[in-house]
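Researcher: We're teaching a course module on how sequence relates to structure. For the next exercise, students receive a sequence and then see the predicted structure as tokens, so they can try to spot secondary structure elements on their own. Here is the exercise chain.
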Amino acid sequence: MNAVTILYFAWLRDRTGHAEETLELPVGVTTIADLIAHLRARGGGYEAAFSLGRVIRAAVNQDFAAPDTEIAAGDEIAFFPPVTGG
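Model: And here is the predicted structure for the students to work with:
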């Protein structure tokens, strides 16, 4: 099985309609940027959620990840909005 677990937080969860999902990685989806493009292509709430791609943050296995970070089967990938401190 070539699946990853995806977690969505805050308004990403609201727009996609999911807090968590398991996704089979399509051929050619090997980085965070590839995954975001794939999710956007699903349309609807996914397009709405990822249309602001530059402000979305990602983590792979609980480590912050850049768009070019590679992903693999079994990874946990989290998407969340920028975190602000106070």
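Model: If you want an answer key for the exercise: The domain at 16-80 is CATH 3.10.20 (Ubiquitin-like (UB roll)). The mean pLDDT is 93.
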